[in-house]
Design a protein that fits this description.
- Chain B: Keywords: Cell membrane, Membrane, Transmembrane, Transmembrane helix, Transport.
- The complex is a heterodimer of chains A (about 290) and B (about 280).
- Chain A is about 75% helix and about 0% strand.
- With about 290 residues, chain A is mostly helical.
- Chain A has a single domain, classed as MetI-like (MetI-like fold, Orthogonal Bundle), CATH 1.10.3720.10.
- A two-stranded antiparallel ribbon of chain A has the order 1-2.
- Chain B has a domain of about 180 residues: Orthogonal Bundle (MetI-like fold).
- Chain B contains eleven helices and no strands.
Chain lengths: ~290, ~280
């Protein structure tokens, strides 16, 4: 009786989970993989082949954008970590009482607005007719309008901005759990700031660092609005090519292949990150 | 650097400067967006031409159409609200079931299924949209070509957008609700059972009220994430355009202060929603 009731409740809860994961995640991705190996001979005949993947490697524009997107995403992730760490440290260890809560809330403010709105805000600030340009002219530091938008620096400013919250929150959470006596002991034993940071603080905060880095990296790699709206002619992003294949060219086979490649890249880098730091996905995300 | 370790004045001053610079960086883009929603000029840039509410209320007669008279944006807002409603409903319901499944039950293969549950977090949003488009829309195309059956639900449109967003928002809802369920004292439930409650009654009178703050929190988060999502949505949207996509199209034509007005409106709405949930949270605990 007891076990059959347990069985029933297991199946009752397992069914919605399986429906969700199979119908919305597994099957669609397997189909995308299948389509990426199909070659369209004419409008209604399909053949199997590696044509789309060959296109990717032979067309330098594809793989250059691919490498660029990967490298810039890694750089953005690293920059976000470096910028966010002192802030997280201050909130977790130095601020007290009300100011602690207020500072933490202040970090959440940008996320009252969507990525589109945030990017739009940066465009108003940085463009030729924008706020910064006007201020520089008013101060007499510039003779004419200054264009600060449409280059890689602008893209990175925007991407870091988008990722900060997802870095600050896990860092604050792990740092709060750290016993300050450990840090004090480190200093008592003669360690300098850098040694204490490297030997005590970073190892302790590692789950938070990895979790923040994974989320920021995924967001950056998959972002579309920020690079397309803030980037210049030469700052193409890989997601943009996927959109082009699907939406303007209706070439689903090529788009699916590019999608698979992006997925392989992101999984590979996340896996490497977990291996190098000795963390598990379950520990850092769950 | 902790409170008990002495610091130099200079270090403190530098640290403070850094903090201030950081929060200016955070606030500035949103601040200028908000301010230019009230600038009496056709283009969101300096110089300041005076205060106006035209970008909200102008009815088009003076060459300006404010947000509340802009039918395209208003209908996009309505589409987004409908999508967000269904996404919230589905992902929170799924999140509850998943949380109980992974926190309370033991079964073979649980570790593997838990990893599968986390999977949508490490798939870029674009890919989630693309894969669902390829699978469902492709299926609709094939059925129509081979047997002449029209499955219009699976054509790009609201249903597909809801499906695409539920894919990853469910994972987030599950994590929020599961972390609260983990802190639940199971003796409370056992006490209810000892006092003669059936498991179902115990669930609804003891466990569910305990989970309520996290369910509300997950719902608010799901609603906001759905409303703000662009990457997954744009791949799956049909003729009924949601707000983010409509704004993006508008922005590509050139920026007008109406965009600022919408942005400010959204910021205030999400801040209110966040406030409402945190208020309810503190009252409960």
């Amino acid at each position: 009786m007891r076990s059959s009731a347990g069985r029933l409740s297991l199946w009752l809860l397992l069914t919605p989970f399986l429906l969700w994961i199979v119908l919305l995640v597994l099957l669609p991705h397997l189909q995308m993989l299948r389509v990426s190996f199909q070659v369209r001979e004419s409008w209604d005949t399909l053949d199997w082949g590696l044509q789309q993947y060959q296109n990717f490697f032979s067309e330098s524009y594809y793989w250059r954008t691919f490498v660029r997107t990967g490298v810039m995403s890694l750089f953005t992730t690293f920059l976000t970590l470096v910028i966010a760490f002192p802030i997280a440290w201050y909130i977790a260890k130095l601020a007290r009482g009300r100011s602690k809560g207020l500072l933490f809330l202040a970090c959440l403010i940008p996320f009252w607005a969507s990525e589109l709105v945030r990017t739009y805000g940066w465009m108003i600030l940085l463009r030729e007719s924008g706020v910064f340009s006007t201020w520089l002219q008013a101060l007499g530091w510039a003779d004419g309008p200054v264009e600060m938008l449409y280059n890689d620096v602008a893209v990175i400013i925007g991407l870091v901005y988008n990722g900060l919250l997802f870095m600050v929150v896990p860092l604050v959470t792990t740092l709060e759990g750290m016993d300050e006596n450990l840090v004090e002991a480190g200093y008592d034993l003669g360690g300098g700031h850098f040694t204490v940071l490297r030997e005590i603080v970073v190892p302790w905060a590692m789950p938070g660092i990895v979790s923040g880095c994974i989320v920021v990296f995924m967001l950056t790699l998959g972002s579309y609005l920020t690079p397309i709206l803030m980037g210049g002619k030469d700052s193409a992003w890989f997601t943009q090519q996927i959109f082009t294949q699907f939406i303007t060219r209706f070439n689903w086979e090529q788009g699916a292949a590019l999608g698979v490649l992006l997925l392989v890249l992101s999984s590979f880098i996340v896996w490497i990150g977990l291996r190098v730091t000795g963390q598990s996905l379950r520990k850092v995300m769950g | 650097m902790i409170r008990s370790v002495p610091r130099s004045r200079l270090f403190d001053a530098l640290y403070l400067t850094y903090l201030v610079a950081f929060f200016v960086y955070l606030a500035l883009p949103l601040l200028v967006t908000a301010v230019f929603a009230f600038n009496d000029a056709p283009f969101p840039s300096l110089p300041w031409k005076g205060f106006t509410l035209d970008w909200y209320f102008a009815d088009g007669s003076g060459g300006r159409t404010g947000l509340f008279h802009d039918d395209t944006l208003l209908s996009a807002l309505w589409v987004s609200a409908q999508i967000a409603f269904w996404v919230t409903l589905c992902s929170v319901a799924l999140g509850c079931a998943n949380a109980v499944l992974f926190e309370r039950l033991e079964f073979r293969g649980k570790e593997l299924l838990y990893l599968l549950m986390l999977l949508p977090l490490v798939i870029p949003g674009v890919i989630l949209g693309v894969s669902i488009l390829v699978f469902y829309s492709g299926m609709a195309n094939d059925l129509s070509r081979s047997w002449g059956i029209e499955l219009d639900v699976f054509r790009p449109g609201m249903t597909l957008v809801v499906m695409g967003q539920v894919t990853f928002i469910t994972t987030l809802a599950t994590l929020v609700i599961a972390s609260r369920l983990r802190k639940f004292d199971r003796q409370l439930e056992e006490a209810a059972l000892n006092l003669g409650a059936t498991p179902v009654v115990a669930w609804f009178t003891v466990t569910l009220p305990w989970l309520m703050p996290s369910i509300l929190g997950a719902a608010a988060m799901a609603f906001l994430m759905s409303f703000e999502n662009f990457n997954t949505t744009v791949m799956l949207t049909g003729s009924d355009t949601p707000l983010t996509v409509a704004l993006f199209n508008r922005l590509r034509e050139g920026s007008t202060p109406v965009l600022n007005a919408v942005a400010l409106f959204l910021m205030v709405a999400s801040a209110l929603l966040a406030l409402l949930v945190t208020r309810g949270d503190t009252r409960k605990s």
